[in-house]
Amino acid sequence: MRNAVKQSWITFKSIFTGMGVTIRHFFGPTVTLQYPDERMELPKGARARLFVNIDDCIGCNLCARACPVNCIDIETVAATQDVDLGKTSTGNPKRFWLTRFNIDMAKCMYCDLCVHPCPTNCIYMVPEYEYSEYDRSNLVYHFSNLEPDMVAEVKEKAELEAEQKKRDREEMMRKKAEEKAKKEMEEKKKAEEKSEATSDDKPANDKQGEE
Amino acid sequence: MTEYLTNINPVAAILIHAAIPLTIILVYALVAIWGERKIAGFIQDRLGPMRVGGWHGWAQSIADLLKLIQKEDIIPTDASRFLFKFAPFMMFAASYAAFAVIPFSSAYIGSMVNIGVFYLLAVTSVLTLSVIMAGWASNNKWSLLGGMRSAAQMVSYEVPTIATVLTVILVAGSLNLMTVTEMQAGNDTLGFLPNWLIFQNPFLISAFIIFFISILAESHRVPFDLPESESELVAGYQTEYSGMRWAMFMLAEYADMLLLSLLGAVLFFGGWNSPFGDFMGGPLWGYFWFMLKGLLLVFVMMWIRWTLPRYRVDQLMHICWSILIPLSFINLVLTALWEVIF
Amino acid sequence: MMEVISKDTGKREMVINMGPQHPSTHGVLRLELVLDGEVIKEAEPNIGYLHRCFEKYAELMDDYAKVIPYTDRMDYVSAINQEHGYVIALERMLELEVPERVEYIRVIMAELQRIASHLLGIGAFGLDLGAFTPFLYCFTEREKILDIFERATGARLLYNYFAVAGLMRDVHPEFKTETSDFVKTFRPKIKELNDLLSYNSIFIKRTANIGVLPEKVAFNYGASGPVLRGSGVKWDLRKNDPYSIYDRFDFEIPVGSGELGTLGDCWDRYIVRVREMEQSLRIIEQALDGMPDEGDVMAAIPKRIRPKEGEIYTRTETPRGELGYYIISDKSASAFRVKARAPSFVHLSMLPAISKGSLIADMVAIVGSIDIVLGEVDR
Q1: Domain boundaries along the sequence of chain A
Q2: Do residue C65 and residue A47 have CB atoms under 8 angstroms apart?
Q3: Predicted confidence band at B5 (pLDDT cuts at 50, 70, 90)?
Q4: Mean pLDDT score across all residues of chain B
Q5: Would you state the pLDDT for residue A198?
Q6: Residues of B in contact with A18 (CB under 8 A)
Q7: Cα→Cα distances C265→B30, B315, C205, C347, Å
């Protein structure tokens, strides 16, 4: 009996302690942020969206290789000799046209692994988190600043140059081959002349030997 | 008021009579659902609904109601269709009918019957039936478990409720709630306290505690919300319900909570009597005081809900049968003795 | 309806599926329960709803470092601790020295994460038993920890913060003051939590003597972490098999004592977590005192990770128990085999053993008390 009374006393006491805690919170401050009206300030280094400063990109592909989920898609075209793409702000020379630099934020897992290998620090995370889309394809961010016709032009140019180079090389190869052939021919000739000169004696020698 | 209306048009009188508690219930339910969410929010350091309607989201319940009306009424293929459709309305009808004998103010009571308390307890028993109906008809195992639990719980907790109500009736000497309220008028107890029954007899205080615990269980509130305990039975007997039918359950539940709180206010806290004697008296103030007392009890129920975990089903039965029922009967006997001696 | 019921009543048993869409199965656990009334006759956990091929990924990646973000996603509630085990394994394989400052930051981070994880575990446990409010109080506190993490690492949940022999970035300058502020404000909150939940008599009624895990059963199933300590075994890898710099700190291992019920019941497992949070606070305070202010955290990170041919098993104490990584290297750039020994998986496997004969409401309490994370169970 005494035990039962004690038990129910403990029960009531613990219930009232709990209710005391909740009523204190009832009159206490709230922690809610009314989201669209108030926004949480994201810290400087927050990882929320990838951003590429395309002017600094040298197209080295290191970020794409570091990505565990292959969400970075880079296509580069070598710059022709007549254009100078300049240098990045860090002083690295740019040698490639970036015809495609797409990041699929739907695939990205915000791991930050692409940021560290970048030699020019041009790919980094920005604290920008409101980018929901109705269509998933809108989450693919295109960072390349080349116009489509520019891309075509660049590609054509590069192809031309490549062809030219190829032709040049072929030309060179042919020339080389020709020269080589010439040389060989000459050498052959010389050799033949020499051998002719010597061959006059040789048979004689042979003959002598035979004899 | 009643007589005046009846003289003009008896049918209109009946309709108006019936409409008054319905209006009260509907308005109360909208306010209470919003209020509960706000209370829960503030207790949990949140704000609760803030968007709909401007100031503190006061129109949230209305928006929810509109949404629920528009929702598709899904009936599971293998459900017992008639019972499934009927259960929510029966539940609401039962709690609505019970309001007939509640004296909202000195000028208004739905039906001035001599067996008021008896009628109220009898009608609320139908709630159990509708819960079992809903649980069984849904053809869902979780619903069934919820329904069974609920049946056991409500049948058990009716016993201590009735025993404590009986204690009050013993002191008051009438089953008519209007009479019970009228006899609590005045401010004479110990010179300053109102003549409310809870101050009349020390054993009525313990009776009130038992009564309050029992009504928590009867209206399925934490810590006794086992029939719909979310983390165990998904949603208990309401699992398969959606849209308007689910809203009816919700409405009935809140109406039931108000009903039992108001019953507590009548039986222990002087009903529509003002705590300051004749000051702020009269029918309208009476209605104000009555609702205030009822809503305070509702607030305490909500406060408890957002503080405590819930009991297990066997512990619930244990509390009822081996603690509350013996205590309430001992209390009844002691109250009777007190009344005889003093 | 009639058919279904009569089929079951023939055996007086009912088969019920708890989950995968159930409010208290902590994600996507599916339990197949055979019930007699509300009494559980048999319980069978069905897993695999969150399987993401972690181990296969670890083999397919062309770099060891690329696996670290995937370890985060195993137990997403305590991501830092998952990384910690993996980088320690790699450091031991490569025989690398870790700079002092890195070690201290790692320990602080790991302990903060332990508190955050326990807060979630405790809150969700209360929620399972119907107490909604403690859950949100716990979340408020957890949020503060995540704020510290966000400022230091840039992410709130999946950090990818630890690198082999270093960190991905240095902590922010206010890290020390912020953390010690948090430690100060958090102590009173534990007391409040105790008032509200731990010593609430309804909570005790629901958890004491429920789901008793005797010491022997715990050993046989290979339990670890708070579940094992709840059964009264003083076993903590931070003390028993020290890794990182845990041997430098002074802290205790709280164990269950059965003070309110039987040894090894749900309440014991619960209170071990609460007391562990206090011990973690102690470690954080000591580590903050000892942490060197200067030092490059990224200097020692190797450019290429090519371990020698061989294999290694390292274990660390995560909030859920012993997390082991077994790595076989074949001298190539990626592992030949990575096996993660997940504590949640082990603990889930003993669910049938400790839940037999209890009520369906107790099942919820037991699942809550072993504090599983389905991401780690399925991997």
Answers
A1: 49-146, 147-195
A2: no
A3: low
A4: 83
A5: 61
A6: 307-308
A7: 43, 18, 11, 14
CB contact under 8 A, B310 and C129: yes
Per-residue pLDDT at A204 exceeds 50: no
Domain ranges, ordered by start, for chain C? 11-378
Domain of residue B299: give its range. Answer: 77-341
Q: How many domains does chain B have?
A: 2
Residues B116 and B83 in one domain: yes
The pLDDT value given to residue C321: 87
Domain boundary among B52, B70, B88: B70
Fold for the domain defined by C11-378:
Cytochrome-c3 Hydrogenase; chain B (1.10.645)
Instruction: With CB atoms and an 8 Å threshold, state whether B43 touches A19.
Output: no
Q: What is the 3-state secondary structure (H, E, C) of C244-266?
A: CCHHHCCCCCCCCCCCCCCCCCH
Interface contact C69-A113, CB threshold 8 A: yes
pLDDT tens per residue across span C40-85: 888 888 888 888 888 888 888 888 888 888 888 888 888 899 889 8
**Residue A15 to residue C140, Cβ atoms within 8 A:** no
My answer on whether B125 and B37 are in the same domain is no
Strand B108-109 with C14-18, pairing: unpaired
Hey, which residues does C40 pair with through a beta bridge? Answer: C35
CA atoms within 13 A on the CB side of C221: 25
Same-domain pairing of B206 and B140: yes
Please tell me if residue A209 touches chain B, with a CB cutoff of 8 Å: no
DSSP helix/strand/coil, B269: coil
Q: Indicate the residue among B14, B48, B70 that finishes a domain.
A: B70
Same domain, B222 and B128: yes
- Judged by CB atoms closer than 8 Å, whether chains meet at B234 and C23 is answered as yes
DSSP state of C74: T
pLDDT at C241 over 50: yes
How far away is chain B from the Cα of C140, in angstroms, using its nearest Cα? 9
Domain range A49-146, CATH architecture: 2-Layer Sandwich (3.30)
- The tens digit of pLDDT for each residue in B11-56 reads 877 788 788 888 888 888 888 888 888 888 888 888 888 888 878 8
- Measured between beta carbons, the chain A residues lying within 8 angstroms of B41 are 30, 32
B56 and B95 inside one domain: no
The length of chain A is 211
**Residue C126: its chain B contacts at CB < 8 A?**
309
In three-state secondary structure terms, B322 is helix
Amino acid at C293: D
Q: Which residue of C has its CA nearest to A26?
A: C133
Size of chain C in residues: 379
Nearest CA to CA, how far is A127 from chain B (Å)?
26
Can you give the C-alpha Rg of chain B in angstroms? 20
In tens, the pLDDT along B54-83 reads 788 888 888 888 888 888 888 888 888 888
Q: Is the ipTM of this complex over 0.85?
A: no
B288 and B181 housed in the same domain: yes
Q: Is C16 on the interface with B (CB under 8 A)?
A: yes
Of A18, A66, A109, the CB nearest to C200: A18
Chains A, C: CB contacts under 8 A, how many? 71
E strand intervals along C164-254: 166-167
Q: Is C131 on the interface with B (CB under 8 A)?
A: yes
Among partner residues B42, B306, B323, which is closest to A30 by beta-carbon distance?
B42
Quick one: average pLDDT of B222-243?
A: 74
Q: Which of A17, A9, B304 is nearest to C199 (CA)?
A: A17
**Does position A209 have pLDDT exceeding 50, yes or no?**
no
Chain C: touching chains (3 or more CB pairs < 8 Å): A, B
Do residues A123 and A52 lie in contact, with contact meaning Cβ atoms separated by under 8 Å?
yes
B184 and B56 in one domain?
A: no
Min Cα separation A6/chain B (Å) = 13
- Per-residue model confidence as pLDDT tens digits over C6-41: 444 556 777 888 877 777 667 788 888 888 877 888
pLDDT at C2: 41
Q: How far apart are CA A137 and CA A128, in angstroms?
A: 19
